[in-house]
Every structure is written in structure tokens, then in C-alpha cells.
Design goal:
The complex is a heterodimer of chains A (253) and B (284). Chain A is 34% helix and 24% strand. Chain A is α/β, with parallel strands linked by helices and 253 residues long. In chain A, strand 1 and strand 2 form a beta hairpin. The radius of gyration of chain A is 18 Å and the shape is globular. Chain B is mainly α and 284 residues long. Chain B has one domain: Orthogonal Bundle (MetI-like fold), CATH 1.10.3720. Chain B starts with 39 loop residues before the first helix and ends in an 8-residue tail after the last helix. The interface between A and B is medium-sized, with 22 and 20 residues. Bound molecules: adenosine-5'-diphosphate and magnesium ion (MG). Adenosine-5'-diphosphate (ADP) binds next to helix 1 of chain A.
């Protein structure tokens, strides 16, 4: 592998170097470099089909069957949240939350996590008895139980209605503050990225095309002019004008 | 918004219910079969019984063709009084239970091995498909040669018929488990055993239970045949003996017993199904 120019040794928990991935002859990622610091919240933006999920799945170790090269360093304590909540329909909510963990300590941790995401009292419910937002909360609880150093989330709120999504943003922000994992959030919602992330990266043509540190403090208000400025810039790099921003948000990958 | 909506102060007069306006919403078209009817499984069989009564009572049905219900009833009481029915029933039920249990265990194990490993499938699936094409009952001559005409032969024949639907349904349900759940299992580092316990088995359970229903019915059918070929006890033997003496009413008692056993065991499996698959949202 060719040495990458300007690459310093790093202690960052997540390091991706010259990552190449493709399906058959078609290249999807052609040399992605990305570092995520401890506790850093990174949002990954990009048009549908540009390879966001491919990158996230590589970090999750879910791409056995995909050809490619490059170097990936990730902590062993990872958790993945998918766009669908992916709760096992035959397991009650608490059992879903503690999936992969055994013993009383795990069940207590599961209860605590459910309380944290606001699902106290629903431990014994079947997944189909929960609303879409609640199902996604349960999925978040399942990842919390694992006390991850890296949280990988692939458009976790993409299937939720706008109001529920706003609530979930608050929840995710709260959980990130409380547990301080590194986060890679894949999203196609520019506002969501600006609101939640410390840094936004844009994937384009198989590479990280743009990096934007979000140095807004406090409650990030979309009507804040600085917020709007960042949004305009990001939308421009995505090749989209303001008018189509809402379409982009609605589109799902 | 500044408008404040105050509720109109019309308290309902004491003792009189509030009048409701007629519900004129166009309701969504009803497509499901509707609310379940209580004891609905009994309605059809009772109608059949009624028809039999009517046909015998009116003389349309010759008792030499089919005995009257009341003759069958009194014969059944005699058979119970001298203990013949219970003894034979016990023998039959034991055979069916052992055969079914053996078939279920074998079918389930084969389905798991063949469902979870490509090599296992290559080895197991072909022979099972071949067996599926050969009715177990056609294998009886061979089984008699191998195992004699004792209990073992009967149990193996029943098991041989029962394992096939268990295998087929479990295997197919297992292969239909959504890959997304397998992926989930990978991301939460499930061990092989936990994967089996938490994902594979519950995911394949609907198929297994469907197979079990087929297997139970099949077990009774095999039982009838083996008991009429080479047996000195059992319901089938009792009927076969009655045939040589021309006792139609005993044959009918046997048939009714077989029918009841079939219905009861099917009902039992369905009950298990309902309890075990509560997580499903179906027309049910
Ligand atoms: N399993 C697969 N087999 C073949 N092609 C795939 C597969 N998964 C993704 N792709 C292709 O790779 C490209 C990137 O997909 P993906 O990473 O899912 O995009 P995104 O998540 O950014 O919308 C797409 O063009 C898609 O068609
Ligand atoms: Mg995607």
C-alpha cells in the first residue's frame, strides 16, 4: 500500500486509510481516509448510492463478501444502529435489548438502557406493539447495553416522521453526552448532520470530498445565520440548491 | 395561535345518557375474516354427525352399509365396559407417540444441519427429497424384513412418515429467516449457540409447527396401516378383527376413535402454535 502523504501516527480509535471497496468491477470507495477521535461525533453526508453504507459496513466488519483494500482500525466495542430497528420480532423488547449478553447484570443493564431511551415499562412488549420511533429507541438501547466505544448509525432516523426525528435527535445528543462514544452517523439530512455532529464529512466519488468542523455551541438552531451558512455551504458541495434541500432530506437510500 | 377554545357548557341531564350522533364515517372495507367464532372447530363435525343421524333414522342409510349412530354408541359402551377399547387405544397411542417423537427429533436435527451448513444440505437434502417421493407405507415390506413384525417396525414406519414434513417445513422456514437478522447477530457478536437459540430456532418455529401438524396427521395414518397389517393389538387390529366377523359397528367405533384422536392432536398442536407464535401479527 502506498504511503499516504501527511499521515501521522495517531492514537485515534477509528482510523481508515486508503479504503477501496467495490462490487464486481464497479468501484464504490476509491481511497477513503477518515479519522475519528475519541468521543467525536462525525456525520457522513453524501448523495444516495455514493457508498455511505458501504463505508459504514466496512467499519462494522460486515463486508466479508466485498472486495477491496485499505487499512481499518476500529475498537472492538462497537454497536451498529440500522435504518430499520431490526428488532427480532419473536423476542420481547428487553430480550431484544440484551441480545448477545447473558446474565442478570445484562438484564439490569438492559432495563437501565430502556429507561434512558424513555421506554421504561415497555420491557415486556413485542416489537410490533411499538411505534416506529419507539422501535428505534429500543435499537438505541440495544447498542447502549454494549457500552460501545464506537457507535455506527446508518440513517437511523431516515424512516421516521419529522417530529419523531427531532425528538430522536435530542435523545441521541443526550446519549452521546452521557456515554461519550465516537460516533459515525450516516445521514442524508444536512440539518441533522449540522445539528448533531462535531464534524461533517461529505463522501463524493468514492472519497471524502469535504470536511467541515461544526463549531456552533449550545442549542444549534437552524434559524441561526451561522447554521444557515454551514448548511448552504454543505448543500453546495452536494450539488444541491436550497430549494431541493427538503427533497434530499426526504429521499432515502 | 391565540384563540382559546372553551368547551360548550352543556352538561348531560341527570340520569339520561348522552345522545350520540349516528356514526356516518365511511369505514374501511373489511377484508380480514373477522372476529373468531368460539368453538368454531366443532361446527363442521357436528353438522356431519347430524346428517348421519338423519340418514340412518329416515332409513336412507342401510345399516349394513353404515351402522346407525345409536348402535355405534352402544357398541362403544360395551367395548369400554369390557376394557377392550382402552387397552387397544393405549397400545395405539403409545405407538403413535413414540413414532412421532422419533420422527420429530430426527426431522428437526436433519433440518438444522442441512439448513445451517451447505455441506450438510448437500448430503441430507437429496436423500430426504427421494424419501419424500416414496410413501413410507411402500417401505413397509422392507422394514418388516429388517425389523420383523414387532413394535420396532411399527414405530420406525410412523417415524419415517413423520420426519419428512418436519424436515421440509423447518428447513424452508429456516432458510427464509431474514438475512438482516443474521447481520444483526454478527454486529452483536452472538455466539453460535446463542445464534441458534435466539435467531434460528425462533425464526424457524412457525415452519416447525406447521410441519408438526402434518406429521401428527401422518402419524395416525401410518398407525392405521401398520396396525391392520401385522398386529395383535391396537385400534387398527380391533377393526381388522371386526371386519373378519362383519361387525360394521366396531369398525365405525374405530373410525370415530381415529377421527377424535386426529382432531384432538391437531387441536393440541394448534394451541401450541397460538401460544408460541404470539409475536406474529397475522389474520389468525
Ligand atoms: N450487495 C451489493 N451488491 C452490489 N452492489 C451493491 C451492493 N451494496 C451496494 N451496492 C452498490 O454500491 C453503491 C453504494 O451503495 P451504498 O453504500 O448502499 O450507498 P449509500 O448508502 O450511500 O446510499 C451503490 O451503487 C449500490 O448499488
Ligand atoms: Mg445507505
Amino acid at each position: 500500500m502506498a504511503a499516504h502523504s501527511g499521515l501521522r501516527p495517531t492514537t485515534a480509535p477509528v482510523v481508515v486509510e486508503s479504503l477501496v471497496r467495490g462490487f464486481g468491477p464497479k468501484g464504490v470507495l476509491n481511497g477513503v481516509d477518515l479519522t475519528i477521535e475519541e468521543g467525536e461525533f462525525v456525520a457522513l453526508l453524501g448523495p444516495s448510492g455514493c457508498g455511505k453504507s458501504t463505508l459504514l459496513r466496512a467499519l462494522a466488519g460486515l463486508d466479508r463478501a466485498v472486495s477491496g483494500s485499505g487499512r481499518i482500525v476500529v475498537p472492538a466495542e462497537r454497536a451498529v444502529v440500522f435504518q430499520d430497528s431490526r428488532l427480532l420480532p419473536w423476542a420481547r423488547v428487553l430480550d431484544n435489548t440484551t441480545l448477545g449478553q447473558r446474565g442478570k447484570a445484562a438484564r439490569d443493564a438492559g432495563r437501565t438502557a430502556l429507561r434512558e431511551v424513555g421506554l421504561e415499562g415497555r420491557e415486556g412488549a413485542w416489537p410490533h406493539e411499538l411505534s416506529g420511533g419507539e422501535q428505534q429507541r429500543a435499537a438505541l438501547a440495544r447498542s447502549l447495553v454494549r457500552d460501545p466505544k464506537l457507535l455506527l448509525a446508518d440513517e437511523p432516523f431516515g424512516a421516521l416522521d419529522a417530529l419523531t426525528r427531532l425528538k430522536m435527535h435530542e435523545l441521541l445528543r443526550k446519549l452521546h453526552r452521557a456515554h461519550q462514544p465516537s460516533v459515525l452517523l450516516v445521514t442524508h439530512d444536512v440539518d441533522e448532520a449540522i445539528k448533531l455532529a462535531d464534524r461533517v464529512v461529505v463522501l463524493d466519488h468514492g472519497r471524502i470530498a469535504v470536511e467541515q468542523v461544526i463549531d456552533l455551541d449550545g442549542d444549534r438552531d437552524p434559524s441561526d445565520p451561522r447554521f444557515a451558512a454551514i448548511r448552504k455551504e454543505l448543500l453546495a458541495t452536494l450539488g444541491v440548491g436550497e430549494t431541493t434541500a427538503s427533497d434530499l432530506r426526504r429521499e432515502s437510500a | 395561535m391565540t384563540a382559546v377554545i372553551t368547551p360548550p357548557e352543556v352538561a348531560p341531564p341527570e340520569g339520561k345518557p348522552v345522545e350520540l350522533t349516528v356514526d356516518q364515517r365511511p369505514l374501511a372495507r373489511k377484508l380480514g375474516p373477522g372476529a373468531p367464532i368460539r368453538l368454531s372447530g366443532l361446527i363442521g363435525p357436528l353438522l356431519l354427525l347430524g346428517a348421519w343421524f338423519l340418514a340412518s333414522w329416515s332409513g336412507v342409510l342401510d345399516p349394513r352399509i353404515l351402522s346407525e349412530p345409536w348402535t355405534v354408541w352402544s357398541t362403544a359402551r360395551e367395548l369400554i365396559a369390557d376394557g377392550r377399547l382402552q387397552d387397544n387405544l393405549k397400545v395405539s397411542a403409545e405407538r403413535a407417540t413414540y413414532g412421532l417423537a422419533l420422527g420429530v427429533v430426527v426431522g428437526l436435527l436433519l433440518a438444522l444441519v442441512s439448513g445451517l451448513s451447505r455441506f450438510g444440505e448437500a448430503v441430507i437434502d437429496g436423500p430426504v427429497q427421494i424419501k419424500r417421493a416414496i410413501p413410507s407405507l411402500a417401505l413397509i415390506p422392507l422394514l418388516v424384513l429388517w425389523f420383523g413384525i414387532g413394535e420396532n417396525m411399527k414405530i420406525y414406519t410412523i417415524a419415517l412418515g413423520a420426519f419428512v414434513p418436519i424436515y421440509l417445513q423447518t428447513h424452508s422456514a429456516l432458510r427464509k429467516i431474514d438475512l438482516r437478522y443474521v447481520e444483526l447477530a454478527q454486529t452483536v457478536d452472538l455466539s453460535r449457540t446463542d445464534f441458534l437459540r435466539r435467531v434460528v430456532l425462533p425464526g424457524a418455529l412457525p415452519g416447525f409447527l406447521l410441519g408438526l401438524r402434518f406429521a401428527v396427521t401422518g402419524a395416525w395414518i401410518s398407525l392405521v396401516v401398520v396396525e391392520q397389517i401385522n398386529a395383535t393389538s391396537g385400534i387398527g387390529y380391533m377393526m381388522e378383527l371386526a371386519r373378519t366377523y362383519g361387525q360394521t359397528e366396531i369398525i365405525v367405533v374405530g373410525l370415530v376413535v381415529y377421527g377424535l384422536l386426529g382432531l384432538l392432536s391437531d387441536g393440541a398442536v394448534r394451541l401450541i402454535e397460538r401460544r408460541a407464535l404470539r409475536w406474529q401479527r397475522t389474520l389468525g
